[in-house]
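User: Can you predict the 3D structure for this chain?
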Amino acid sequence: IALEKKMAVMTVSYRDAIDAAISKRLLSGLPTTIAMRGYVFKESGGDPVALTAKSCKVVYDLWDEVFRVTVTQAGGQTTTVAVNVEGVMRNCAETKKIPFMERASMKDATRYFVAVLVEVNPVSADMLDRIKRWVTRPNGSTSLSSSDSLFGSFVGLFVTRIQSADKRLQFRTQAFLPPVAAVTPDATAKP
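Assistant: Here is the predicted structure, written as structure tokens:
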């Protein structure tokens, strides 16, 4: 958990979602989707206060023998190519500095945690559409409120168990205080 400009960001790996069976399926040429949702909660309880999401679609190009990867997350959609499963893991089973909440929305003395849900090949196209709509909102729009039209659907998706996904992984971060800006030494100060 760190502070990047005005956003709290998270770096996390969820490579456990890609087991041997999923790795084998990646090579089949059939599309594989890896969807991650991270809900921010106050440690004291209650409804989630923010959300981050990342969706990754992977198709092995049998002709060119490369993986075609489409990543949808805050900031938009990108496409890339990976030459092996390790490249797919770096792109689709990790997040690096993904924004999850505006720092100004966090209370200094309040502890938070992020509950993460990862699904491989969730069957619900509706759920994937909702993730895409969420992550394509304007930057800095990560906060949730009960008046947010997507709030209920996302809480429902977190609570509901979608048993038809090929693989499901849930975990949470340790509780943390809001991140603060790193203090850099003044270059003009004398030792």
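The mean pLDDT is 83. DSSP finds four helices and nine strands in the chain.
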